[in-house]
Amino acid sequence: MLSVNRIALAIILIFLLLVPHIASSYIVYVAVLAILFSMLTASYDLLTGYAGPLSFCHAAFYGFGAYTSALLALKTGMSFWLALPISGITVFLFGVMVGYPALRLRGHYFAVTTFFFGHFMYLVFLNMRALTRGPLGLGGIPPPDSIFGIDFSGMTANYYLILVFGILMVGFLYALVNSGFGRLIISVRENEDLAEAVGVNTAFVKVMAFSISAGLAGITGSLFAHFFRLLHPTTFSWMTSEMIVVMALVGGIGTLVGPIIGAGVVTFMLEVMRFAPELRFIIWAIMLIAILVIEPRGLVGIYARIRGGR
Amino acid sequence: MQDLLVLKKLTKYFGGVVAAKDVDLNLKGGMRLGIIGPNGAGKTTIFNMITGEIKPTAGTIEFEGEPIHGLKPHHISKKGIGRTFQIVRVFDEIPIYDNVLIGALARELHFKPTQEQHREVGEIIEMTGLKKFRDVNAENLTVSAKKRVGLATALVTKPRLLLLDELMAGLTFVEIDEMLELLRKINEEMGIALVVVEHVMKAVMELCERIVVISSGEKIAEGTPQEIADNRKVVDVYLGEETK
Amino acid sequence: MEIFLLQVGNGIIIGSVYALVALGLNIIWSITDIPDFAQGSFYVIAAYVAYFAVTLAGVPFLAALLVGMGVGAIMSFMCEKFLYRRWRERTFRLAARTQLLCAIALFFLFANVANALWTSKAKMFPAYLKGSLLGFSYMRINVFLAAIILFVLVYLFINKTKTGKAIRATSMDLGMAQVLGINIDTVNSIVFAMGGALSGAAAVLVSPLYSVFPTMGDLPLLKALVVVILGGFGSVAGILICGLGLGVLEALGAIYISSAYQHGYSFIILLLTLLLRPKGLFGRV
Hints:
The complex is a heterotrimer of chains A (about 300), B (about 240) and C (about 280). With about 300 residues, chain A is mainly alpha-helical.
C-alpha cells in the first residue's frame, strides 16, 4: 500500500472514531451507512477489482445476509453473535452454489446474468411474505446483545461495533489480497488462460473470490439488520447493487482503498442532495459517466496520473 | 530411458475440419524434439491437446505413463508440463518478478511466499536474463522480453517437459542465438525435455535431436535434422517456403 | 382452454415488445460487443415524446410512432458517437467493461430525467383505435402486427441490401471488414440508430396499453436481454421466436404457477437454457 493511501486511511479512521462525539444522530446514521457501504465496496472489490469479473448482484448477498440474520434472531431467539457468523457462512455457501455455474460464463454474459440474479433475489425478498413480510418490512429486529458488559442497544455503541467490524473486514481483505492466494486471484484477472496454464485452478479461484466476497456482504447485511432493526426489500434492489458498482468505480477498483473512498464520497454526496431526490440519481449517473470518460480507474487513477503519469 | 510423452493416434476434428489425424509421437526424457510443418498444419492444435486447452476427438496422450488427455490445463501443469504461447502471454499489469512468483505459488501455495520460492524466482529471472526488468510491469516490455517472461514463468513450475510454441518468431538473429543458448542450458542443466514448434528452420536444425513434420494434420516424416533436410516429401510440402 | 388461449395471446403481444427491443439489442451487441442497457431509457423517452406529440400537438398515432422511433434512433446514435466510440479501439483492459458501465449509467440517467421532468405519475396514452377481435383490442393486435412488419423490414435490410451485408460482414470479422473498406463509423451509427428506433417503436406501440411512466423501460430491457442471450446472437427469426416464446411462457407461468414471480420466470428460463445449451438456443456467438 502506498504511504499516501495509509495517510488517507488514517485520516478517515480518526474522523470516524470521533463522529459520535462531534456530530448529531443524523450524521451518525450517515456515517454508519458510509461504513457499511465501504464494507460492501471493499468486499465487492475483491471480486471485481482483484479477480476480474464485473458483477451486479452484490446487494442480493447483502440482503440475504440481512434477512438470514434477522430471521435467526426473530424466529429462534438466536444471539446476534451467533447469527452473524452463521449468516456469513450461509451466504458464502450460497455464493459457491451460484458462482460455480455462473462463473463458467465469461465477460458480458456473466455480468448480465448477475444482473438478472440480483433482480431475482429482490423479487424473492419482496414476495416471500411468510418470511420477509415483503413490502411491509421486517421489523423488531433486536440489537446485538451485550457482551463484556457493553450494551449495544444505544446508537453510539452499535456504531463503534460496526466500525470495528469494518476495520476487521478491511484488514482481512488486505491480508488476503497480499497473500499467496491473493496473487493467484490477481493472476486470474490479468490473464486467465495463462494462469490456468501455469497450474492455477482458475475455476476454484474465481468461485472462492466470488463466495468470499458474497459472504462478507452477508456479514455486512447482518450488521445492517441489527443496527437499523427494520428491513425492506428495496434496500437490496438492483439500484443498490448498481450503487455499489459506482462507488467502487468512482474510487478506483483493484485497490481496496479506492472503493472505500468512493463509498464515502458517494454516500456523502447522496445525503447532501437529499432535498432533491430525483436529481440525486441524475447527478450520480452523470458522475459515473464523467469518471468513465475522464479516468476509468477512478479517483485513485486520477491521483496516480497527477503524481506521475501512468 | 523412460518414455516421457507418448501420443497414440491423436486426432482432432473441429466440426468437419480435420486439424490432426492419427498422430503418433514418442518422446524420451531430456530429449529435444522439433515439430515443423506449413502454416495451419495442426501443430498448435497438437500442443493444445497435450496441455489440455482442447480435448482430443480420439487417441491418447500419456505423460510418464499416466494418461493425461482430457484433463484441465492446470492439472496438466501440475503433472510437470509447461508451455509458452504463440501469441505471447504475460500477467500485464504486474512486475516481472510477480509474474514468475505466481508460477511458483501456483505450484506450491503458501500464505506468504517462502524464502526458498523467492530464491528460485530470483535464480530463474537471472537465468533468463531478466534481472534488470525485475520491477517493470510486464506490459511495458518488448515482445522478446515478454517471451522470456513467459519462459521464466513456465520454468518456475518445475516442469519435466516444456512445450514452446513459435518462441523464435519475431526475434532478431542475435536474439535467436541467445534464446537457443538459453534453451540448451535449460535442457542440459535442468534436464527438461523440449518440444519446439517452429518456422525458423535455423533454430530447429541447430537445437533439435529429432524432428517431426506435420502437414494437414498428419505426421508425414520423422527423423534427425539431416534426414529431414534430405527428405523429398518434406521439401515438396514446403514448396514455396523456406527450407534449409 | 379459453384462459389458456387468452394467455397465449397476451404472451404473444407482450413477447412482441420483448422481441423488438431484443432485436435492437442483439444487432448492437453482436456488432459492437456492447450490451446496450441504455436502450431501456431511449424506450422511456420515446414513449414520453410520442405521448406529448399526441396529447399536445394532436398528432395521429402513426406519426407519433414514427416520432418515437426517430427519438430513439437519434438518442442512440448520439450516445454511440460521443461515448461508446471513445472506447471502441479497446486500448486498455477495462475498455469493454467501461462501455457496459456507460450503458448502464445512461439507462439510469435518462430514466431519472424522465422522472424528474414528468413525475412518476403514470400518464394515460389515449387510445387510437377502438374495437376488438376475439377478446383482444385492435391496439393490442397491432403491437404484434407492427412487430412482424418491423422484423421483416430489418430482415430484408440486413440480408438483401448492400449496407446490410456490410453490417453482417462487420459482425463476423471486424478486421476484414475494415480491410474491405467498410466504414466502421458508419456501420456503428446505423446499427445504433436502428436499435434506438426499434426500442422507440416498442415503447410507443405499448404505451396505449399500459400507460407511460418513468420506469416502464426496466422490465422490457431485462426481458429483452434474456431474449438476446437465449437467442444466442443467431438469426433475426430466432430473436422473434425467442421473444414471443418468452412472452408466452411468462404469461402462462403467471396464470398457472404464480403471478408474483412472473418477472422471475425469465431468469429461471435463462438459467436452465444456459446450463443445457451455453451458446443459447440458436447460438452462433
